[in-house]
Amino acid sequence: MRIGHFIRHLSLSILLLVISASSFAQIGISVSFGPPPLPIYEQPIIPGDGYIWTPGYWAWDSDFGDYYWVPGTWVLAPQVGYLWTPGYWGWGNGGYFFHEGFWGPTVGFYGGINYGFGYVGTGYQGGRWDGGHFSYNRAVNNVNITEIHNTYNTTVINNNTTVNRVSYTGGTGGIAARPTPAEESLAQQRHIPPVAAQVQHAQMARANPQLRASVNQGKPPIAATARPAEFSGHGVVAAHAAGAPYHPQPNQPNRPNPASQPANSAHASEVQPHQAPPPPNTTASKADQKYQQQQTKLIEKQNQEHQQLQQKQEAEHQRVEQQRANEAQKQQMEQRHQQQTQQMEQRHTQQQQLAPHQPAGRTEERPK
User: Fold this and answer.
1) Lesser CB count within 10 Å: N end or C end of the chain?
2) What secondary structure, in 3-state letters, does the chain show?
3) pLDDT beneath 50: ranges in the chain
4) Under 8 Å between Cβ of 58 and 82
5) Half-sphere exposure of 334 (CA within 13 A, CB side)
């Protein structure tokens, strides 16, 4: 193993001790039923200038087969001009998948979910950047105007107190929303994943049994916090009520089977290439031969995509080392690589599940 390669993996191992892979466990995990409605809660007062509101959301814990609430919180923007696009649950391929939120110069698609406090389903009406400073809309934000003067007041229609509390898109009872071409294009552009404070915030929520939906019945005792990962003190806000009566599914899904679920690999280089099936037997039926040919073609395509991602990630590692990036930049890169790798594995798993199944047995050809 090359020395540089060893050092990179050693650094990653240390990083993963701090940032658990559980923070990304929702990526690639399919849930058979949608999350509970959004609870009703108030926004804690902003802790200082430069903070941007990130709304609370339901996350999934595969270890307990249960949703848990990640409280809304104020987060410092990673750089001037960047806004937060919330994550959302969306229906597809027979289950609900979580699309992680991100930071970028424009707010992208977040499922049409009305998270409130300026996130009305599309865009963001809670504030705007102005001359290097963030201005807050007092109509939807809890701002102390004696301390923060960069504010304005614009009425927002359909705020969080007047709409339904549905927390997912598509499927039974979900929001009917699709991204615009501009939002689809934005999703492909460069953006920043959740910062370290948000990752720690989600980890603490996952570790708190009181935030599980089966325990709080959709009314979490910690609905929002003034700062990330501060789950006690005067800045903590409890939910007033559940968004709607909580009806957990009678049949909880089984815990993920390690043999059938994508692994929590951090880089494409850690993923084993797919093994192609043996060449078709000349004595096999035409149906068997066709199946093997389809499988071979699919696996070749997946391994090619795997190789391309691995090369891309290796090139980025070399570039970051040459540029002598700081730890925060390296951390963001590692998070991004882990997301890319797990999304690739999930996509490959779905492709295998949707591929034609092998014939049950040999079929005799009819004489012509």
Assistant:
1) C
2) CCHHHHHHHHHHHHHHHHCCHHHHCCCCCCECCCCCCCCECCCCCCCCCCEEEECCEEEEECCCCEEEEECEEEEECCCCCCEEECCEEEEECCEEEEECCEEECCCCCCCCCCCECCECCCCCCCEEEECCEEEEECCCCCCCCCCCCCEECCCCCCCCCCCCCCCEECCCCCECCCCCHHHHHHHCCCCECCCHHHHHHHHHHHHCHHHEHHHHCCCCCCCEECCCCCCCCCCEECCCECCCCCCCCCCCCCCCCCCCCCCCCCCHHHCCCCCCCCCCCCCCCHHHHHHHHHHHHHHHHHHHHHHHHHHHHHHHHHHHHHHCCCHHHHHHHHHHHHHHHHHHHHHHHHHHHHCCCCCCCCCCCCCC
3) 1-27, 159-162, 250-264, 360-368
4) no
5) 26
CA distance 54 to 86: 7
72-76/224-225 β-pairing: parallel
pLDDT, tens digit, for every residue of 81-123? Answer: 999 999 999 988 788 999 999 999 999 999 999 999 999 999 9
Per-domain residue ranges for the chain?
Answer: 19-237, 268-354
Confidence (pLDDT) at 357: 55
Q: How far is 307 from 39, CA to CA, in rounded Å?
A: 43
> pTM above 0.85?
no
